[in-house]
Design brief:
- The structure is a single chain.
- The protein has about 550 residues and is α+β, with helices and mostly antiparallel strands.
- It contains 10 helices and 26 strands.
- The radius of gyration is 25 Å and the shape is globular.
- The protein starts with a strand and ends with a strand.
């Protein structure tokens, strides 16, 4: 097996990511090396819950197929409601549990459209961190292995040492998630303001695992931003935490004229281990209020609640009621608060908040009113409502309990047509070269780095392809309506299977078109040699029967 770094591989177009690729000895597959790191604990992912919800995947494929025919949107109407499921969890450098079905609420009768998962303190020892950059970390692998079989695709992720942010979408929505950008900023001592130095002495020592990572994207034309933060620890640094958050907001920029900063987005979701504590109360009072379910007695002294009363910019962020027990600090694998010698006070350190961009102030007398865009907020409304806010106490690998937030996004879509329609020409097999055809349905800034990938049904992410063809380099014919792209038979899987084609836009960092599923025929060589797939270390190999 030859391990080779491809300088012009599609993954190389993504800044900040390093990928190593394996060319199989058969010469017919190219697979990410990270697949070889799938832990053996993933073998038990075939739980009754997952078997039940896997049936939904067939519906997802049917919806995606309808979306391609005639260029219709996945919902069939311009106004729709979408469910967003968010998770924040400080995992305390632990390895993931074997099953995250309840964390993702896979038993829910209401299908989720988007998942946003923010983790803090993912194991980031030097060797582990380098390996994770090349091969994917164990947490990402688990979430992809859980969600991909039921029709979800990882649309973006970003890692900064212990901070990890993952975004998943139902496959039917993927062509309408565009303009994806990621950024990060480390919390630095230089962001300390005068108020921090007055209220917090000595100042906290900056650590590499503190800061924020964000993903911004356009969802049916509406700009959303997800910001996962890990702020300074300890009771006395409440003001420092606010300064760190301000610094993160000021330092994170995006390459976009309409939304260059985090707060320019239509909706911002701010979540993570924000580390705010419960002030003043002693341990006995805290535990008494928690054990008697009188959590409301603690709300007034929650530091984030207190800081929101002082800081106008924090008042723009909304949060559901803290009706769940404080999520820190627990003995691992138990529901007992810290019994160690330190006996940390319980606190709501792990939070999920959101902000809908406020309308600008009316023009002053004598001023000209601003130009109203055709797609302004009145014409394309968006409403955010929270349906659930709770902790998942049944997970014990960390001294924090994960927090879950479920939201409903009511919006009028600005885009209802995929940018690209594509399909497989004729029969496909490894016996002959194949042709993919696409047509542009809506104008967009294409690039010589755009490519079309062949994916197995149930693919995990844009990088989880079988093979790819450069849109420009491999073009063989072009008419006013359709463009044909050549795919070598050497790159088509010998055993065939159910597949889809996806058009990836380098400028938008996203898939902008997905074909209907089609069948790749088993090749004559596979039949004659009796080749069968065998899973070796998480990677499909071909062996003689």
């Amino acid at each position: 097996m030859l391990i080779k770094q491809h300088d012009h591989h599609p993954a190389a177009v993504n800044p900040g990511r390093c990928w190593v690729w394996i060319r199989g000895g058969s010469g017919n597959t190219t697979e990410p090396l990270q697949d070889t790191l799938a832990p053996s604990s993933f073998d038990n992912l075939d739980t009754p819950n997952l078997r039940r919800v896997r049936a939904e995947y067939a519906l997802t494929l049917e919806t995606a197929e309808k979306m391609q025919v005639g260029g219709c949107s996945s919902q069939g109407a311009s106004q729709g409601g979408y469910r967003l499921h968010m998770v924040t969890w400080n995992v305390g450098t632990a390895e993931p549990p074997s099953d995250v079905a309840s964390l993702l609420q896979l038993d829910s009768q209401n299908a989720v459209d988007l998942y946003a998962i923010g983790l803090q303190e993912v194991n980031a020892t030097p060797l582990r961190f380098i390996a994770d950059l090349a091969f994917e970390d164990s947490w990402s692998l688990l979430f992809m292995a859980t969600l991909a079989p039921i029709g979800y695709v990882k649309v973006s992720s970003i890692r900064m040492q212990g901070l990890l942010l993952l975004l998943f979408s139902r496959q039917a929505h993927v062509p309408f998630i565009r303009d994806i950008q990621t950024t990060s900023s480390e919390a630095l001592a230089c962001c300390l303001s005068t108020r921090s130095l007055i209220h917090s002495f000595p100042p906290p020592t900056p650590k590499g695992n503190k800061g924020g990572v964000s993903v911004r994207l356009s969802f049916y034309g509406h700009m959303l931003c997800f910001l996962n933060c890990h702020l300074a620890a300890h009771m006395q640094y409440a003001t420092q935490r606010v300064d760190e958050f301000e610094y993160i907001l000021d330092s994170q920029d995006f390459d976009a004229h309409n939304t260059p900063h985090v707060l320019d987005h239509r909706v911002v979701f701010w979540f993570g281990d924000l580390n705010f504590r419960i002030a003043d109360h002693g341990m006995h009072f805290l535990r008494s209020a928690i054990n008697s379910s009188r959590l409301n007695l603690l709300w007034e002294k929650d530091q984030l609640t207190m800081m929101k009363k002082k800081e106008p910019f924090l008042q723009e962020f909304e949060e559901g009621p803290l009706s769940f027990k404080p999520t820190y600090k627990y003995d691992r694998f138990s529901e007992n608060y810290d019994t160690s010698g330190k006996k940390r006070k319980p606190a709501w350190t792990d939070r999920i908040l959101w902000r809908v961009k406020p309308k600008g102030p009316p023009p002053e007398e004598g001023e000209e009113p601003p130009q109203v865009a055709a797609d302004d907020d009145d014409e394309f409304p968006l409403k955010v409502s929270q349906e659930a806010y709770r902790s998942a106490t049944d997970y014990g690998v960390s001294d924090h309990k994960p927090v879950i937030g479920s939201f409903r996004l009511e919006l009028k879509k600005k885009s209802e047509t995929p940018l690209v329609r594509l399909w497989a020409e004729g029969d496909w097999s490894a016996d002959c070269d194949a042709m993919a055809t696409y047509s542009i349905l809506e104008p967009f800034a294409s690039s010589t780095w755009d490519w079309i990938g062949l994916y197995k049904v149930g693919f995990k992410s844009a990088m989880d392809y079988v093979t790819y063809a450069w849109v420009k380099d491999d073009e063989v014919s072009c008419s006013d309506a359709n463009v044909k792209v050549y795919v070598s038979k050497e790159e088509i899987p010998l055993l065939g299977g159910e597949c889809v084609l996806c058009y990836y836009s380098s400028n938008m960092q996203s898939i902008v078109g997905i074909s209907a599923p089609f069948h790749v025929q088993e090749s004559r060589a596979a039949i004659e040699q009796g080749l069968v797939p065998e899973n070796i270390n998480g990677l499909d190999k071909l062996t003689a029967n």
